[in-house]
Amino acid sequence: MPAQPSAAPAVAAVVGRQGVGKTLFVLRFAQWCGMSRLLVSSGSRASGDEAWVELDPADAVSRLVGSQGPTTRQLQHLEVQWRHAKRWVRIRLSDTVGLTDGIHPDPQLRQAMAESLGAVLESPVVLHVLDGAEVARRPQRLLDEDDMDFQLARYGERRRGYAVIVNKLDLPGGKRGLDAVRQAWPRRIVLGTSAVEGWGFARVRRFVERFV
Predict the structure, then answer these.
(1) Where is the G domain (predicted)?
(2) pLDDT tens series, the chain, 212 aa
(3) Which residues contact 103 (CB under 8 A, 6 or more apart)?
(4) Contacting residues for 99 by C-beta, under 8 A, at least 6 apart
(5) What is the DSSP letter of 98?
(6) How far is it, in rounded angstroms, from Cα 50 to Cα 54?
(7) pTM of the predicted structure, to 2 decimals
(8) Is the Cβ–Cβ distance between 18 and 109 less than 8 Å?
(9) Hey, CA dihedral for 135, 138, 143, 147, is it positive or negative?
(10) Is 50 helix (H, G, I), strand (E, B) or coil?
(11) What would the DSSP string read from start to end of 184-199?
């Protein structure tokens, strides 16, 4: 890992439903940016209970990503940096808890979701992650005003630093989901990725560089 620049990191919130691949996206993006060791935290700086742990990328995936969700039960953060032209870009990626429609029955997750939405409101960059394969199965919900993703997209339309990340394009139907999002939400920036296969990150990084 290169020496830390002195400036405080900018913040980018990664938000979306449970199971869309937010945590794997964050970890693979950091690795793609050249981070050989990952500093991951959980807890809150404001409350003083934030704890950092340094992980090898493979260990981070093993510990933080699971097939039985929700795996992320509290807001966690990852610091990433790279060289851009003559300056360092340093960001703090906020890996938020997966959101749901309606009120979740688990009080711990309800609190974590509220903290996650707070992180979205405070972040200059918001990356809204969708599961492309799932969108392809139910494209009609992109225009459902009661749907959580529609509400996030409507909020993002008023934000300069907002982009939609259609993930899981490696799965059958994923690219059809990407096309559906671009058609349904034409005024948003929509980028496609596969966190599993590790591609699509160059455009994401260029987008982030515009706002930090």
Answers:
(1) 65-168
(2) 444 444 678 999 999 999 999 999 999 999 999 999 888 887 655 555 667 788 888 888 888 886 555 456 778 899 999 998 888 899 999 999 888 887 767 787 788 888 889 999 999 999 999 999 999 999 999 999 999 999 999 999 999 999 999 999 999 999 999 999 999 999 999 999 999 999 999 999 999 999 98
(3) 110
(4) 15, 16, 17, 18, 113, 116, 117, 148, 152
(5) P
(6) 14
(7) 0.88
(8) no
(9) negative
(10) coil
(11) H-TTS-EEE-BTTTTB
CATH of domain 10-209: 3.40.50.300
Domain chopping of the chain, boundaries: 10-209
Q: How far is CA 67 from CA 49, 72, 164, in A?
A: 28, 11, 23
Using an 8 Å Cβ cutoff, are 17 and 25 in contact?
Answer: no
Structure tokens at 92: 């703090």
